[in-house]
Design brief:
10 helices; oxidoreductase; alpha+beta; disordered N terminus; 5-stranded mixed β-sheet
Length: 354
């Protein structure tokens, strides 16, 4: 992509931040150093999510007893009910593959900003900041490629920006995480409804799911009321999310009435329940609000797999009566987008209560 050679790689996040600050009457603002950041950011306790060895589920069951699989299933369901988040090891996604994905991400995000923003890379899936933000607290200090799996699967035409190995690595990661997500989703469904079967959740395949490659640049600014968000507080609008984060940390989730920081564990993957699974489970499983906090000096990378159905898929429920009216994934997504555009924040499942 010679037209972009030598261009700056960073998205203009600072420009957006200061424009929003002026819009809110905050003046021009000034970067805060690490000391100022520490002084305004409220302390958050660090936690270790429930850690579950899922080898008995991902290895084809060889050598695992029925009692081991039952205990693993019970642990997964308990974590989904009590935390909405858990960690897994022996998950079947090779560490060498995740290392390769991290290297490809770094190469991808080092491309010039103009190439990322207007070059049509990975199915024109590049995102940065928050276009709908009306205040600094609504701005996500991050950039990402939110990649439809169809863009990197099969023979689909896909601009890789000259990164010849990116497609193969991305595809391998997607396949491995898809297999894990499908296994965990079926286990969780069968824990509530044994007849849910091998096809749960209906309508999820490589044409409907997404892989999101995230980068959180160092952030030299802080809003007056605390550290800036790398990703604003939200819940996920899918069935299940599988996340690989690096060693930097920054992920926080709501536990009880407060935020807790998730301690990175080498080799573990993080799994969290999405809105659709909370609806299907009649609120047994919890789609928990979470966010990513910025780091003043260090960039952070992560990759997330989102288990999503087709837009016309009805979500349904594990049993009736359900607290939610019938809706499709497409209807849910449209309502989320309308709310964010209108109010600056997602409302989500409360819109669909009976």
């Amino acid at each position: 992509m010679p037209a972009f050679a030598g261009g700056a790689a960073e998205p203009p996040l600072a420009d957006s931040y200061y424009a929003l600050l002026r819009r809110c009457g905050g003046g021009d603002g000034a970067p805060n150093n690490g000391g100022a950041r520490a002084a305004v950011a409220a302390p958050v306790a660090e936690c270790e999510l429930p850690m579950i060895d899922v080898g008995c589920l991902t290895s084809g069951g060889g050598g695992s007893s029925e009692a081991e699989r039952a205990a693993c299933t019970a642990a997964i369901a308990r974590a989904a009910e009590e935390w909405g988040f858990f960690q897994v090891r022996n998950h079947g996604v090779a560490p060498e593959l995740l290392d390769a994905m991290r290297r490809e991400q770094a190469r991808l995000f080092r491309l010039p900003f103009e190439a990322k923003a207007s070059g049509g890379l990975l199915g024109d899936s590049y995102r940065w900041g928050t276009p709908t933000a009306t205040s600094p607290r609504q701005l996500s200090w991050s950039e990402a490629f939110h990649v439809p799996l169809a863009a990197v699967s099969g023979d689909a035409a896909c601009d890789l920006g000259g990164l010849t190995t990116l497609r193969d690595v991305t595809r391998e990661v997607a396949v491995a995480m898809s297999k894990l997500a499908g296994t965990l989703a079926r286990v969780l469904a069968e824990a509530l409804r044994p007849a849910a079967g091998e096809r749960f959740p209906e309508g999820c395949d490589e044409t409907t799911c997404f892989l999101r490659l995230n980068r959180y640049p160092p952030c030299p600014v802080s809003p007056p009321d605390g550290a800036a968000f790398g990703l604003v507080p939200h819940t996920d609008s899918d069935f299940l999310t599988v996340l690989c984060q690096d060693h930097v940390g920054g992920l926080q989730l709501m536990k009880g009435a407060g935020w807790v920081a998730v301690k990175p564990i080498p080799g573990a993957l993080i799994v969290n329940v999405g809105d659709l699974f909370q609806a299907w489970s009649n609120n047994r499983y919890k789609s928990v609000e979470h966010k990513v906090m910025t780091n003043a000096t260090t960039e952070r990378y992560s990759v997330a797999y989102f288990l999503c159905p087709s837009y016309d898929s009805p979500i349904g429920a594990c049993e009736e009566p359900s607290p939610y009216r019938t809706f499709t994934f497409g209807e849910y997504r449209r309502k989320v987008q309308e709310d964010v555009k209108r109010t600056g924040k997602k409302i989500g499942l409360p819109n669909f209560l009976v």
